[in-house]
Each structure stands twice: as C-alpha cells, then as structure tokens.
C-alpha cells in the first residue's frame, strides 16, 4: 500500500489570444442587479486549477477545478492537503468524509466543496493508475458502446449567426444542441420576443427530430420563467436550464411541477445532500452536477444512485473527463454535454489547452479507452507559452 506523499496545486492563467464573446451572450444572475453595461462582459473562465496528488511510489493523480482557482488553491494548500497526506488513497470514502467534516463549518458548498472535488478527482485518477484500470471500470464499467454528446455553445447573438453556427454543428453529426438566452426580466416583453425569435430560428435549422436545450444560467426569475414556459412549449425543448438562482429550490420545484418544459439544474449545487434535496423536492427533471464542484467522483457516484432511485437522469455540466467516466459507468447518465474545441472565448473550452487526452466528439459521440488507466488525461505542454502558471 502506497500512501499519499504530496498535493501540488497550480493555477493556470490564460494569457494567450481570446475571442471576445458577443455582448449579452447569456443571461445570468447579475442581470437582476442595477448595474451599468453588460454583466456577462466579466463572465470568463480564463483560469483553471490543477491538483496533483502524488503517492510515495511516484504515481501522480490529476484533479482540477474551474471555480475561483486562486481561492481553491489556497484552501487546498492551507486546509485540505494536510488532511490527505500520509493517508491511503484507497480509503477514499473516509478521506472524503474527513475533508467534508473537518471543514464543515465553512466548506459544505462553494469553495470548500470545490477543493474537495479537485482532490477527490485526483485520488480516483490515482486509483485507476495504481490498479491499471480506467476510472469508469472502477465505477461500474462500460454501460454504452459510445457516449452520445450534445453540442453546447450557441451563445445568444444575431439570429443569422446563431443559425449559421447551428447549421455548421449539424454537419458534425450532433443530435442535441444547447443555446443560451440573451434576454431576461430586465428586457421586458421585447426581450421575450427576442428570446422566442431565436428559439424559433434554431428549430428552423435543426428541425424537430433533434434535441434543443435552452440555457438561462440563473438569469431569469420565477415570475419571468412562469410567463415564458407556455410560450416555449411549442418549440419542444428537451429542458430549460437554471431558470432561477441556485438557492431558489422552491422556484425550481414550482416550475418543474408546471410540467410544461422539463427543468434542469444542479451545476451550482454542492455535496450529496445538496443534490439529494433537488431530487427529493422534484426541483429538476434532469440533474446536472459538475464533478469538479459537487464533491468529486466519490460524491457524484453516490448522487447517481439517489437520482437513479428517483429515475431522474443525470447529465453532468461541462463534459470533460471527470464527468465522462461517470456517464460511461451509469445507464442513468444518458448523454454528455460537450463544449466544442474552439479558440479561447468564454473559457468553457480552456480545458482543452491545459490537458491532453480529452476525447473529441465524432459524429455526435465520444469514446473512452478501456485500456487507459485513470482518467486518461495528462497535463499538456503544448500551450505553456500562453499560460502564466502560479505554483
Ligand atoms: O451549462 C453550461 O454549459 C454552463 O451554464 C455554461 O458553462 C456557461 O457557459 C453559461 O452558458
Ligand atoms: Mg448551465
């Protein structure tokens, strides 16, 4: 048995070229504020955290976090790393509880649970490498020949450019497409019409034999969503995502109970109990935790069991290997989100510039390798010139 010897955290700041997103490309929680300018102008994921857990025999497991990397790094360095050094990585359930309970006063959600996630993902990568098995083979094995993925971009912009993007994506074999709304409560009825115009335009391109998912990114509220749902029904969205802020679980449940459009959410929920509440209160018809926020693979797999018992499908936020392995290992995880490989824009695509090994979608599917131990990713040296790395 080899013990954990060290935890190395690094913050990767992208300093390379970026594509400026169109203004107002997605509604968001800040839209409710009285503020000047475009709230999404500051919405960038141009930083990422890598977390490498090394054992005494020199094996290194790789974890990561996208939320607040500099703060999560400090939390790991100061609080969480000391809790796992000297421990056996295969005692991962005990280590998860140790990290969760020793910081329970402040770490149950947000930064603390993101830090736990990064370390836990690294531990699962480590266990895969130490056993010579891909992580999905440690979770339940292959439940799919390949993973169906949905195309996730279509940021709100001019109707013609959204239609052109959807047309291009159609050529790559996707059968699911997620777009972002650009308008919300502050834009009134005129904004509603702009939103509906774009949904109609996308349906004209992709037709009705493909899935269309609609993303609000917490930018609406209960009143606006209740008014919009009947107007959206005829476009048959597969789901309406994060219509209200993450704390408005009652609002989620009311919208989902209207049974007009399935409501999805969870990418801003944390821990097993946090997701169990969304399920038990019937707040979502599709649960979308992100493994690098919710508590890592240990927590995500427990949540998958609770969701399966309630027959709520789990389609994790973001794609990326820490989520793909769970989707491969669970029949109740039918498809994956997939950010197409793009020049760095909002930052959802930054993962591709830090890591190697993330599979590219082919004809709307992606594949995992039965013989690649761990998560199957390495830290890339291909784009180092475009990063400032903080140890
Ligand atoms: O579901 C998603 O992909 C997220 O909400 C996105 O990361 C974000 O880009 C908002 O569109
Ligand atoms: Mg989302």
UniProtKB/TrEMBL annotation:
The reply on keyword Transport is: no
Q: Hey, which family's this protein in?
A: Belongs to the mandelate racemase/muconate lactonizing enzyme family. RhamD subfamily.
Is Magnesium a UniProt keyword of this protein? yes
Q: What is its EC number?
A: 4.2.1.90
Organism taxonomic ancestry? Bacteria, Pseudomonadati, Pseudomonadota, Alphaproteobacteria, Rhodobacterales
Residues spanning the signal sequence = none
Q: Which organism is it from?
A: Pseudooceanicola lipolyticus
Q: Enumerate the SUPFAM superfamilies for this protein.
A: Enolase C-terminal domain-like (SSF51604), Enolase N-terminal domain-like (SSF54826)
Which cofactor names does the annotation list? Mg(2+)
Instruction: Tell me the GO BP annotations in alphabetical order.
Output: carbohydrate catabolic process
Q: Which UniProt keywords apply?
A: Magnesium, Metal-binding
Q: What is this enzyme's class at the first EC digit?
A: lyase
Q: Which GO terms describe its molecular function?
A: L-rhamnonate dehydratase activity; magnesium ion binding
- Name-wise, this protein is L-rhamnonate dehydratase
Pfam families assigned to the protein according to its UniProt record, in alphabetical order? MR_MLE_C, MR_MLE_N
Q: How does it assemble?
A: Homooctamer; tetramer of dimers.
The Mandelate racemase/muconate lactonizing enzyme C-terminal domain is annotated at 159-262
């Amino acid at each position: 048995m080899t013990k954990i010897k060290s935890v190395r955290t690094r913050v990767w700041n992208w300093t390379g070229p970026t594509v400026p997103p169109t203004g107002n490309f997605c509604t968001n929680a800040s839209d409710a504020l009285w503020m000047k300018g475009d709230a999404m102008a500051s919405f960038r994921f141009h930083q990422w955290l890598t977390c490498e857990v090394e054992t005494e025999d020199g094996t290194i497991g790789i974890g990561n976090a996208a939320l607040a990397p500099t703060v999560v790094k400090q939390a790991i360095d100061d609080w969480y790393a000391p809790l796992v050094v000297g421990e056996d990585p295969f005692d991962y359930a005990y280590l998860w509880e140790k990290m969760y309970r020793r910081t329970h006063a402040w770490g149950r959600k947000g930064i603390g649970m993101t830090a736990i996630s990064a370390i836990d993902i690294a531990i699962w990568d480590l266990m895969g490498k130490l056993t010579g098995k891909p992580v999905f083979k440690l979770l339940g094995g292959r439940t799919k020949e390949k993973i169906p993925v949905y195309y996730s971009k279509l940021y709100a912009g001019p109707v013609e450019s959204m239609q052109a993007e959807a047309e291009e994506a159609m050529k790559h074999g996707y059968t699911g497409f997620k777009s972002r709304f650009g308008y919300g409560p502050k834009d009134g009825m005129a904004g509603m019409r702009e939103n509906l115009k774009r949904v109609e335009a996308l349906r004209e391109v992709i037709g009705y034999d493909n899935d269309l998912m609609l993303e609000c990114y917490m930018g609406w509220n209960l009143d606006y969503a209740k008014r919009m749902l009947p107007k959206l029904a005829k476009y048959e969205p597969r789901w309406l995502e994060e219509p209200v802020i993450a704390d408005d679980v009652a609002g989620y449940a009311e919208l989902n109970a209207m049974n007009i459009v399935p409501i999805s959410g969870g990418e801003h929920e944390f821990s097993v109990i946090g997701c169990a509440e969304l399920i038990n209160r019937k707040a979502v018809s599709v649960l979308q935790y992100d493994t690098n926020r919710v508590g890592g693979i240990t927590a995500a797999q427990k949540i998958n069991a609770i969701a399966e018992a309630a027959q709520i499908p789990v389609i994790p936020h973001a794609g990326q290997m820490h989520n793909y392995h769970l989707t491969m290992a669970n029949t109740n995880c039918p498809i994956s989100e997939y950010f197409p490989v793009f020049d760095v824009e909002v930052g959802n695509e930054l993962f591709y510039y830090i890591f190697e090994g993330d599979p590219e979608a082919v004809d709307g599917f992606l594949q995992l390798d039965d013989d690649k131990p761990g998560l199957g990713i390495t830290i890339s040296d291909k784009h180092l010139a475009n990063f400032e790395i903080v140890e």
